[in-house]
Amino acid sequence: MSAADWWSIEILDAEHAEISAASWRDAYAQTLAESLITNGASSWEWFAYSWGIVLEVSFADERGWAAWRALPGTRAALDAVPDPVSGLLVHRGHGGASGSYVPRLPQVDPAADRVALPEPA
Q: What does the pLDDT average to over 72-97?
């Protein structure tokens, strides 16, 4: 599978919502999984983060994704997220975090080798 075959649905927690993103997943995961199976999804996986939930879905082609996305059950589930206005992100590719933080190693300033050091006495 190439990266273009993956789609991400990110559901963010909202302070003013009555349910969390995790509760939304608990309510809709089985329905979404059944529709993914019956509509030809190659793979899917749930990820939990401190800020919400990510569902990554893979289809063989974009038409499969569009057909699944247009299903009434899929649309109803996405309409029921805790914050449907600003708490739902749907995009192509993998979602969530971009990986763990790896700090840069300290480097010598490029001009440091140009300064003459005093001769030892």
A: 88
